């Protein structure tokens, strides 16, 4: 296995958030204790995905290349591998469990190999042929009759049980994302579900323990993750999000989609009562027709209806999960769709519980630059990647310092001449 190359004795990681509206590449240094220092960021608009799924390989490859090149320039490194996001309504989840007997060594003390064996047993679940397991997340362990164990390594027993959360995705969707990344001469260290990555970036441990619902409203999908007792219990992805809001505005105001997106970003409000009756906005017409001035409250009415639909679908998903009454910490909104005025107030009215906007925290370096809900998934990919590197080294170095690369080039030519 290749060892990761270093820059200033720190391992470089890259998170690649492949979204419907944009592709973001974030470069970070993995510091001791799994802390992350962000040193580079690149972003480019995305036209090759629809509702989180690749529909145009060439366009997606170009977006990834542009984002990677921008991140390389800012970070001063050559990117070789990435932790990439995956989302879409094909994402499924289920809870499973596995049981193994503790091996008769060292007085039946649980070790890392026992953990690996019981997790392998838990992931042996029947899933549709067109799905693949993306990740398996331990919820708790049971050793003999003792339940709710978080870390059983070192404990003594005879029977170990693991309860886990399994997230699956469509084989074709995962393969197409991997193909796009590979076409950019990059290696995929891992495909990580978007809601899992966002949760790593914006949720606190207290929220996970008390119970919380994360809602990541992107352009193409609304991703949901439910945590109780410190662990993920339910995952879902809805094929309705910010792009539908833009389409509603374009249809209702008879304006081209690019202008509808601009109106949404500048003037939209998710709660009509927050828009004053005297406020007006300029709306570009289709073709050669002159622009018009319309009431901002009309815009808010259109937007509010779509956000109400999104939150109703989330409520239905919560009821289906069986955890609706267990999220004492409330709701955390993140993603680009969470930045709109009135979203928190509308969510509080509908969910009848506390709601806050989730921004990435717990990172160093360019923390102010990424302190925005739109970067939740990208930063979370780095945090998740750092945790996984704590357990295993990547098969390919994520990146190589430019200075080191040129040193090798100079050494080569010195040897040749």
Automatic annotation (TrEMBL):
Cellular component annotations (GO), alphabetically ordered: cell division site; cytoplasmic side of plasma membrane
Regions crossing the membrane: none
SUPFAM superfamilies linked to this entry: Actin-like ATPase domain
SMART domains: FtsA (SM00842)
Any GO BP: FtsZ-dependent cytokinesis
Location(s) in or outside the cell: Cell membrane
Membrane topology value: Peripheral membrane protein
Domain SHS2: residue ranges: 13-202
Keywords recorded for this protein, A-Z: Cell cycle, Cell division, Cell membrane, Membrane
Protein family according to the UniProt entry: Belongs to the FtsA/MreB family.
Job of this protein: Cell division protein that is involved in the assembly of the Z ring. May serve as a membrane anchor for the Z ring.
Subunit structure, as described in the record: Self-interacts. Interacts with FtsZ.
HAMAP family registered for this protein in UniProt: FtsA
Protein name: Cell division protein FtsA
Organism: Ahniella affigens
Species classification: Bacteria, Pseudomonadati, Pseudomonadota, Gammaproteobacteria, Lysobacterales
Gene (name only): ftsA
């Amino acid at each position: 296995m290749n060892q990761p190359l270093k820059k200033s004795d720190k391992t470089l990681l890259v998170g690649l958030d492949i979204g419907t509206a944009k592709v973001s590449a974030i470069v970070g240094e993995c510091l001791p204790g799994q802390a992350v220092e962000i040193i580079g960021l690149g972003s480019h608009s995305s036209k090759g995905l629809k509702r989180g799924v690749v529909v145009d390989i060439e366009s997606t490859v170009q977006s990834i290349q542009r984002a990677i090149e921008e991140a390389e320039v800012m970070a001063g490194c050559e990117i070789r591998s990435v932790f990439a996001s995956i989302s879409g309504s094909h994402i499924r989840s289920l809870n499973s469990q596995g049981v193994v007997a503790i091996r008769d060594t060292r007085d039946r003390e649980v070790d890392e190999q026992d953990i690996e064996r019981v997790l392998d047993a838990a992931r042996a679940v029947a899933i549709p042929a067109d799905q693949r397991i993306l990740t398996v997340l331990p919820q708790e362990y049971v050793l003999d009759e003792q339940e709710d164990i978080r870390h059983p390594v070192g404990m003594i027993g005879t029977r170990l049980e693991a309860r886990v959360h399994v997230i699956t995705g469509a084989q074709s969707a995962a393969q197409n994302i991997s193909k796009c990344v590979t076409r950019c001469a990059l290696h995929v260290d891992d495909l990580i579900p978007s809601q899992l990555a966002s949760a790593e970036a914006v949720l606190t441990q207290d929220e996970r323990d008390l119970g919380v619902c994360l809602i990541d409203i992107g352009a193409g999908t609304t991703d949901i993750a439910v945590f109780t007792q410190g662990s993920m219990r339910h995952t879902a992805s809805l094929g309705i999000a910010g792009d539908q809001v833009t389409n509603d505005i374009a249809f209702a105001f008879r304006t081209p989609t690019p202008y509808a997106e601009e109106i949404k970003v500048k003037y939209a409000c998710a709660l009509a009562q927050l828009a004053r009756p005297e406020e007006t906005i300029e709306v570009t017409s289709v073709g050669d027709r002159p622009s018009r001035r319309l009431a901002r409250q009309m815009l808010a009415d259109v937007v509010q209806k779509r956000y109400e639909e999104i939150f109703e679908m989330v409520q239905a998903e919560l009821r289906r999960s069986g955890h609706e009454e267990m999220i004492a910490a409330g709701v955390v909104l993140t993603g680009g769709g969470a930045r709109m005025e009135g979203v928190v107030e509308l969510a509080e009215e509908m969910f009848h519980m506390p709601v806050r906007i989730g921004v990435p925290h717990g990172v160093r370096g360019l923390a102010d630059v990424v302190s925005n809900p739109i970067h939740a998934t990208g930063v979370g990919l780095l945090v998740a990647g750092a945790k996984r590197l704590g357990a295993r080294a990547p098969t390919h170095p994520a990146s190589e310092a430019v200075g080191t690369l040129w040193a090798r080039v100079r050494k080569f030519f010195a040897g040749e001449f």
